[in-house]
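4.2 Preliminary Data

To establish feasibility before requesting continued support, the project team ran the inverse folding procedure on a target of 419 residues. The structure was first converted into the token representation described in Section 3, and no sequence information of any kind was made available to the design step. The complete token record follows.
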């Protein structure tokens, strides 16, 4: 039954049916054809999967991102970072990487980051004289840092399926996010120096710098507050998500003074639609997940991998290969939901805990967000820059190398995973 459902899902996806609808359609058709399990199970599983308290964090973090990313904060942050590093080789491109890293502590969504930061910085980089494909590639790759720096929507989804602590995943995501940021900034520096990209020539003025730092301070403090509240157990992730939304409302209304009813309405609609998309994928994937568990596929897969591959490093390598291929064709939330039930017991069998597996999985699947043929952030930034996908992919090769290097580190060096 699982094999039939996978075949039907691939067929539906190839006909351009959305991933969530393809999963539901494949599950229903598979159950009807095999006739071993009642079809009403689909509805029961879809509804039961949404009855989880931690899921409440998703719409609130989405709302926080929609409130903070738009408005005066974005431009103030870009001005501050440009003053700091705009004069070094590849400095303007590094501003894009740092902006995505900082916004990662606000929105938790790579797609939102690519849209907001890309719309702001890609035209600016092109105006400075940067090649449009390089600008698009830099922002496409940098946007994925969002899902490593807490809060992270994919980490919440992974925790829901694996039973891992959301707070522990958030803390463990800080170091890989910062390492990814440093690696991407290094790529920008090397490329900027090798290809003699233009740099910002605006004279540095300390009064203007302190003014921008003070102006961006309240927003920059949010990621720090989130980590402190989670690390020291002051609040649960769900409580932190509500507090972050209240904080965003206060900062937008009292500090930046750009909170209007239109902005609040737009942020609410955006958060609602984004949450709906994520929840639909969660509901659809839960049906396939139940069927896979019902047929004891995770246990059989674990037994087969241990008997065939035997060596732990080969098993981990095979897991990463499967994740990489899956991430190229399936949206990240759906991939997390489908692969987690299969890989958690296999990871335990080779001595890898759920936190290390979660970080490895998020890093791995995030590569698919800026890799063809489905790469969401890749298509968003290429569309903004008005360039061909193939030209952007060529510029992304060094970024892929950095991401793969970091992935291998977290796959084989457990001590890198903070706890």
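Position-by-position output of the design step:
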């Amino acid at each position: 039954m699982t094999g039939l459902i996978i075949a039907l899902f691939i067929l539906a996806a190839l006909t351009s049916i959305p991933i969530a609808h393809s999963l539901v359609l494949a599950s229903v058709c598979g159950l009807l054809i095999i006739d071993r399990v009642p079809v009403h199970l689909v509805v029961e599983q879809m509804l039961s999967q949404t009855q989880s308290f931690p899921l409440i964090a998703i719409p609130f973090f989405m709302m926080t991102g929609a409130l903070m990313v738009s408005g005066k904060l974005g431009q103030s942050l870009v001005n501050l970072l440009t003053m700091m590093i705009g004069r070094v080789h590849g400095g303007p491109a590094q501003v894009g990487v740092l902006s995505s890293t900082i916004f990662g502590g606000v929105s938790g969504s790579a797609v939102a980051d690519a849209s907001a930061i890309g719309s702001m910085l890609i035209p600016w980089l092109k105006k400075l004289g940067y090649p449009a494909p390089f600008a698009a590639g830099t922002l496409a790759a940098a946007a994925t840092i969002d899902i490593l720096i807490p809060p992270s929507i994919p980490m919440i989804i992974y925790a829901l399926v694996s039973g891992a602590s959301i707070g522990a995943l958030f803390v463990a995501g800080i170091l890989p996010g910062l390492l990814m940021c440093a690696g991407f900034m290094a790529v920008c520096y090397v490329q900027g120096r090798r290809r003699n990209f233009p740099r910002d020539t605006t004279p540095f003025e300390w009064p203007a710098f302190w003014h921008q730092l003070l102006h961006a301070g309240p927003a920059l403090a949010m990621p720090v507050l989130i980590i402190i509240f989670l690390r020291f157990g002051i609040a649960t992730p769900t409580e932190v998500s509500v507090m972050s939304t209240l904080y965003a409302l206060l900062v937008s209304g009292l500090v930046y003074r750009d909170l209007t009813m239109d902005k609040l309405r737009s942020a609410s609609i955006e958060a609602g639609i984004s949450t709906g998309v994520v929840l639909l994928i969660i509901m659809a994937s839960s049906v396939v997940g139940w069927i896979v568990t019902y047929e004891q596929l995770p246990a059989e897969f674990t037994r087969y991998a241990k008997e065939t591959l035997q060596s732990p490093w080969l098993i981990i390598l095979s897991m990463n290969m499967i994740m990489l291929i899956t991430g190229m064709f399936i949206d990240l939330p759906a991939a997390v939901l489908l692969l987690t039930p299969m890989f958690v017991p296999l990871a335990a069998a080779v001595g890898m805990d759920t936190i290390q597996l979660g970080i490895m999985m998020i890093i791995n699947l995030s590569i698919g967000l800026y890799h063809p043929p489905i790469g969401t952030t890749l298509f968003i930034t290429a569309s903004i820059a008005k360039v061909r996908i193939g030209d952007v992919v060529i510029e992304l090769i060094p970024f892929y190398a950095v991401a793969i290097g970091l992935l291998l580190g977290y796959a084989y060096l457990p001590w890198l995973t903070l706890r």
